[in-house]
């Protein structure tokens, strides 16, 4: 039976298909501009040399991983996506990274011994972080992006809608991720109060602005004016230090990993927790 003759109600239904059918469906959420940039055929998922550049891992169940590489032997991916269907028939956008594989690499994903640092939770590579920050990258970015997330998200939202789902869930790993998701219509399940307080305390006379005292490259005066500067300061632990203001500390004394967001398919929440950013 063909895919078009079936009622696909979730990831588990797609994952039960034969691999060619799965590939065709999941390849539809890879940004076409990315495939053109890398010289990958959207029909065969092969490069000009005939080697496959796209790996789609869709085992039995409701989990999917898509990896796109410039070269099959590359350690770095140009596109990496993890999605999962929840028990409540909602889509979890677990992880999405889009890199320009032709741009310089910044080793912020490993510690100074070269070991994977799990997004700086197991150690940091400060020299590489300084290089990345000075190059305009955000925390945890190993290279420039390709400005195709908007194209991807349009395809992804359409895909989610086709499965009869109306909620997309995500967990922003950094402050700039949260601000970026706001742009695409997300609201907060948890963390909106903290985001608003961050904005207030990075304002004139705010506690966080006062901590931008030049004590490290990540805490220079003026960084409060941009998403880039704020995100690096937060990455550097500016929220994790003792607070003189107990009222502020009750709101900001939470781990960043508790931030949870959601989007209703077809609707834009209109949230903007940093309205006066540069």
Write the layout of secondary structure elements.
Elements: H1 11-15, H2 19-27, H3 32-38, E1 54-57, E2 63-68, E3 79-85, E4 91-98, H4 126-134, H5 149-162, E5 167-170, H6 175-183, E6 187-190, H7 192-201, H8 207-210, H9 227-235, H10 246-252, E7 260-264
Parallel strand pairs: 4-5
Antiparallel strand pairs: 1-2, 2-3, 3-4, 5-7, 6-7
Task: Give a written overview of the molecule.
The protein has 278 residues and is α+β, with helices and mostly antiparallel strands. It has one domain (3-202, 256-264): 3-Layer(aba) Sandwich (Aminopeptidase), CATH 3.40.630. It has ten helices and seven strands. The chain has helices spanning 11-15, 19-27, 32-38, 126-134, 149-162, 175-183, 192-201, 207-210, 227-235, 246-252; strands spanning 54-57, 63-68, 79-85, 91-98, 167-170, 187-190, 260-264. Strand 3 (79-85) and strand 4 form a beta hairpin. It is globular, with a radius of gyration of 20 Å.
Annotated CATH homologous superfamily: Gcn5-related N-acetyltransferase (GNAT)
Largest sheet strand order:
1-2-3-4-5-7-6
The end-to-end span amounts to 54 Å
The H-and-E topology, N to C, reads as HHHEEEEHHEHEHHHHE
Percent in strands? 5-15%
Helix tally equals: 10
Major sheet: 7 strands, mixed
Looking at the structure, the CATH topology is Aminopeptidase
Flag low-confidence runs.
Answer: 1-6
CATH architecture: 3-Layer(aba) Sandwich
Portion of residues in helices?
Answer: 25-40%
Number of strands: 7
Query: Radius of gyration in whole Å, from Cα?
Result: 20 Å
Q: What is the average per-residue confidence, as pLDDT, rounded to a whole number?
A: 91
